[in-house]
């Protein structure tokens, strides 16, 4: 095989891998609104079959909201900084500040908004079913 054919084959293979990766990204990765940064920290299998623990840092710019969504398991929130209003279906909205915690049951529709004038952050810990999208947006 000539050098130019080998190089073309490598480029084609790289393009195919990139396209596959882009097409298989979770839907939530595409749906992230401006002003929201989700940083995956860790993901580990649990001793409970078919379950995993996932930790994510979520940063919200002032005034930014993350719309209504659900998770395929429980979410345990620890507010790291700022003031975040949580709207959990079936409960009145609550505003939490740094050091406050919140538990959201599996499948519960909820939303979050930074109601402060500074950036806000939370540590979200999920105990979820494996092989399901971590986040599903709700209309």
TrEMBL record:
Q: Which SUPFAM superfamilies match?
A: RmlC-like cupins (SSF51182)
Domain of life according to the entry: Bacteria
Record keyword Disulfide bond present: no
A Pfam family that the UniProt record links to this protein: Cupin_2
What InterPro entries does the database record attribute to this sequence?
Answer: Cupin_2, RmlC-like_jellyroll, RmlC_Cupin_sf
Q: Keywords in UniProt for this one? A: Signal
Q: Where in the sequence is the signal peptide annotated?
A: 1-31
Stretches assigned to the Cupin type-2 domain = 57-123
Its name, as the record gives it, is Cupin
Q: List the top taxonomic levels of the source.
A: Bacteria, Pseudomonadati, Pseudomonadota, Alphaproteobacteria, Hyphomicrobiales
């Amino acid at each position: 095989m000539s050098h130019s054919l080998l190089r073309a084959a490598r480029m084609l293979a790289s393009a195919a891998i990139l396209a596959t990766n882009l097409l298989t990204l979770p839907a939530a990765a595409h749906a992230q609104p401006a002003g929201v940064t989700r940083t995956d920290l860790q993901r580990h299998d649990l001793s409970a079959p078919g379950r995993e623990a996932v930790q994510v840092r979520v940063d919200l710019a002032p005034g930014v909201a993350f719309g209504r969504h659900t998770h395929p398991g429980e979410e345990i929130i620890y507010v790291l900084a700022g003031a975040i209003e949580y709207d959990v279906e079936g409960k009145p909205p609550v505003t939490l500040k740094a050091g406050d915690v919140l538990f959201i049951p599996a499948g519960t529709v909820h939303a979050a908004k930074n109601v402060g004038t500074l950036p806000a952050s939370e540590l979200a810990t999920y105990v979820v079913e494996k092989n399901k999208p971590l986040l599903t947006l709700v209309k």
